[in-house]
């Protein structure tokens, strides 16, 4: 789910320039990049729905909170964009990736790994990111690869999860492709447009999180059953 670094916009002779990599013009104020900021709330909405339908599952509750955190961090980063916006943007995003990886590993290993197993890698990735941009990309890419790899292995080993994981993966992959092709300097970038590829990435990534939710916290045979049915089982 990692997307390229968000860098503050600069104003030259009263002309507002687009932020590095995100394409959309930065207009200042709370909304900053209006379309990217508005679509960041998709994560918040999805997270709130996940919480409402968690059926008492602690892992699903955490997943929902991380989704909300991802949205809040994205709003801050694309909107007012304070100096500390980058860490607020990255922390829940890296956290949700690490959480997905650990949840899949717990299922496959038949051993419940505690929160330490996803929190510590998240903290380490964020710490390494402070070294510089190459280190940031390497650290966050490593967490992303781990999450994808663990989910693919779960896909293979847990047939009941396949449709859910496949759909979530397709949403995420398509969104990432559109977002990449819409970065500054890329063919689909139009800084003045209301149709922003990075914004589409937000919506599709949020949809992927929602789609993956039925798998979160499930183990073995009951994986991918509806949340309320899992609670009864």
From TrEMBL:
It comes from the Bacteria. The chain crosses the membrane at residues 35-53, 60-81, 87-106, 113-131, 137-156, 163-181, 201-227. Keywords: Membrane, Transmembrane, Transmembrane helix. The keyword Transmembrane helix applies. This is Hypothetical membrane protein. It comes from Hoyosella subflava (strain DSM 45089 / JCM 17490 / NBRC 109087 / DQS3-9A1) (Amycolicicoccus subflavus).
